[in-house]
Specification:
Layout lengths: L2 E5 L5 E4 L13 H5 L7 E6 L8 E9 L2 H15 L3 E8 H10 L13 E9 L6 H14 L5 E4 L3 H12 L1 H8 L14 H10 L1
Antiparallel strand pairs: 1-2, 1-3, 4-6, 4-7, 5-6
Helix pairs in contact: 3-6
């Protein structure tokens, strides 16, 4: 988001429709409105920087021993794949169990039961890039390093969509299990393992 136009509570219009990627003429007030969810004013227009749709993609589900191993795997992916890493989500075994209990159309993603899973996605705007090969090489290196226990790479767009649908339906499976506390927190990536450990111990 490069700029926004906002109607303020008193009816005044704040014009922040800038198209500059870097604007150091003063405070970057648009950030206040972007993070306020409409409580400071209603956005009525925006200037956006758009990016081309990816022409090549690869999706995989990998099993790891712990959240700490997941962070190490993310670092390995970033080092080998750079900005092509566009999705990297950790999923606990509890989430998979609830998903299979309440939405049984989904099979167990891997032959053996594992405690932690990672959903990884690579994208590239070049159609000539063989991202499946890049994904396979990266997971192979991760396996040799002891970070990955098992993994499956989607062989088609349909399989990739199914893996992402499993992830997206975890909240619904939680709701069907019973009352639950929904949370959406942000912590530095390196702090994720201790936060999860404290949550589990509690």
């Amino acid at each position: 988001v490069l700029g926004v136009e906002v109607v303020l509570p008193d009816g005044a219009i704040w014009d922040g429709l800038r198209a500059l990627r870097k604007d150091n003429t003063g405070y970057d007030l648009k950030q206040l409105f972007l993070g306020a969810e409409g409580t400071l004013g209603i956005m009525t227009a925006a200037v956006l920087k758009l990016y081309p749709l990816p022409k090549a993609s690869a999706t995989a589900l990998a099993a790891v021993q712990s959240p700490r191993a997941a962070v190490e795997l993310l670092n390995l992916f970033r080092g080998r794949c750079g900005d092509r890493v566009t999705g990297f989500e950790i999923i606990s075994r509890l989430c998979i169990d609830l998903l299979r209990k309440h939405i049984p159309k989904y099979p167990d993603p891997l032959p053996q039961r594992q405690e932690w899973y990672l959903l990884c996605e690579l994208n590239d705007t070049l159609a000539t890039t063989d991202l499946n090969a890049v994904m396979e090489e990266t997971l192979s290196a991760a396996t040799e390093a002891g970070l990955v226990l098992d993994a499956v790479i989607a062989n088609s767009r349909a399989q990739a969509t199914t893996l992402w649908q499993m992830r997206e339906e975890v909240p619904e499976a939680n709701r069907r299990e019973g009352p639950w506390v929904r949370h959406d927190v942000s912590v530095p990536v390196v702090r994720t393992p201790p936060v999860i450990r404290r949550r589990v111990d509690a």
